[in-house]
C-alpha cells in the first residue's frame, strides 16, 4: 500500500525510482531486525555479562535498523527531512552507545552487570556445603563461577595431596575441561569422568596452582603451546585461573575459560580470585562437616560397643552368680556329709542356669554374625508343624497354655537350625512376657507360595512407640524392666535377620501395653531360585 501511495515527484532527487528506494531500505531494515533477533536468541542461551552484552548489541542493531527506516520519510517528504534526520541522529547515537556497551564494555558496566549473578551465587554459597557430596558442590561452584563471570565454561581441579595431582572431575552435561582432548570430550558426554595430572602438566591452571597467583591469558594456545591441542579441543582460548586456598591449605584451582578473548578483561582476575576464595571457604566447611560426621560415626560405634559390653555383662552376671552360688553350696554339702545322696534339685538348677548362660553366649555370638551373608546356611525341606509342637511342648508349664493351630503339614525349604531358633525366640518371648500366665497360640498356614506363622500372647503387650524399635539391637520396650525380665534386646534382631535372609518378612502388632502381642512371620515356601524352577517344572 505504501508503494502505491508514493507520488512520482517525490523521487526526483534520486536516480532510483521511489519504490526501489523503499524496497532497498526495507531490505536493510529487515536485515538489521534479523541481526537483533539473532542476538536476543543467542543471549537466551548465555548468562550474566555475556547475555547483557548480547542484548546491548541487539539494541544497537535495532537502532541502526530504525535509522535506516527513517530514510524513507526523509526521501519521500524532503520538506520534513530536518525533523526525521534529528530523530535519526538520536537513534544513531543510541546505536553507537549500545554497540560500545556490547563490544567494548567499560569496567563499571561490566561490574554492574556481573553483580546480580555474583549476588545470587554468594546467596546460595551458605547452603552449598550441605549438598550430598563434594562432586555436587564442585559442580555448583563451577556453574556459579561461569554465571558470575559470564563465561561459557568453568572448571575446578581439586588437589589430592597423597598423589600430588590435580583432579578435574566432570559430568557429561557440565562444562568441558581446559585440559580435555577429543576422545576425553566424547567420554565426558557418556557420563562421569575424571582428569588427573600433576600441576606442572596441567598448563595454565596448574601454573596458577603452583605459583598461588591468579593468571589471565588472552590466548592460551600461544602462551602454552605444549597444551595447545587441549585448549583448542575444549574451546579454551581466553583463560582465567585462580588458586583455591584456605589459609595455608592449598585446595585446588578454579579455571574460567572462553573460546574468544574479548569476553574477559584483565580486571576479571579480581572477580575470579574472589570466587576461588569463596570456593575455598565452602570446600573447607564441607571438609569440617565430613570430619564431624566421621567423629559422630566413631562415637556411635563406641557407644554401640559400650552398650554391647554393659548389656552382655549385665545379663551374663545373673546366671553366673546363681551358678557360682549353687556350685559352692553343693561343694559345701559334699564336704560336710560326703555320704549323703546327691542334691538332685540343686544339680538341676545348675543345669538350667548353665543352659541359660549357654543360650546367652550363643545369642551374643549370633548377633555379631547376623548381619553377614551366610548367617542362614544350607536349606532343605522341613515340616514346620512338628517343629512348632515340639518347641511349644518344651516351653509349656503349669502356668502357660501353649497351643498350635496348623494344617497337617507346612513344608518349606528352609535352614532348619535357624528356623528352630526363630520359633524358640518367639515362643520364649511370648511366655516370658506373659508373667501372669495365660495362653500362647502358634498358628501356621500356607497360602499362595507363602508360609504364614503367627505367635500370639495375651501378656504385657508393647506400647505403640516401641513397635518400630524392638527389632533393633539392644532395644527393649519401655514397659520391660531388667530385674523382672532378663534379656539383652538381641533376640528379635536375630529373628529379623533369619527371616529376611530367607527372603521373608517379620512384623509385630499389639493393641497396647497390657493387651498382648502378635508376631507375624512370612516366609517363602521356596527360597532357593534354582529349586523354585524345579518345583515349577515338576
Ligand atoms: P529381650 O527379650 O532379650 O529383651 P528381644 O529382642 O527378644 O530381646 O525383644 C526385644 C523387646 O521386645 C523386649 O525387651 C520386649 O520389650 C519386647 N517384646 C518382645 N517380645 C514381646 C512379647 N511377646 N510381648 C511383649 N513385649 C515383647
Brief summary of the model shown:
This protein is an alpha+beta fold and about 550 residues long. The protein contains 16 helices and 13 strands.
Describe the structure.
This protein is α+β, with helices and mostly antiparallel strands and 538 residues long. Helix 3 (48-76) packs antiparallel against helix 4 (81-103) and helix 6 (134-149) runs antiparallel to helix 11 (268-336). The protein is elongated, with a radius of gyration of 41 Å. 54% of the residues lie in helices and 16% in strands. It contains 16 helices and 13 strands. The strands form three sheets. It has a six-stranded antiparallel beta sheet, sandwiched between helices. The protein has helices at 2-5, 18-44, 48-76, 81-103, 107-125, 134-149, 182-190, 203-211, 220-223, 228-233, 268-336, 344-369, 384-395, 416-432, 491-501, 529-537; strands spanning 153-160, 165-170, 193-197, 215-217, 238-246, 249-258, 380-383, 400-405, 411-414, 438-447, 450-457, 505-510, 517-524. The site of adenosine-5'-diphosphate has 20 residues, from helix 14 and helix 15.
The ordered H/E elements are HHHHHHEEHEHEHHEEHHEHEEHEEHEEH
Describe the main β-sheet briefly.
Answer: 6 strands, antiparallel
DSSP E strands, number: 13
> Oligomeric status of the shown chains?
single chain
Class from secondary-structure proportions: alpha+beta
> What is the spatial order of strands in the main beta sheet?
3-2-1-6-5-4
| Low-confidence regions | 1-14, 171-193, 529-538
Q: Work out the helix count.
A: 16
Radius of gyration: 41 Å
Which percent range fits the helix content?
40-55%
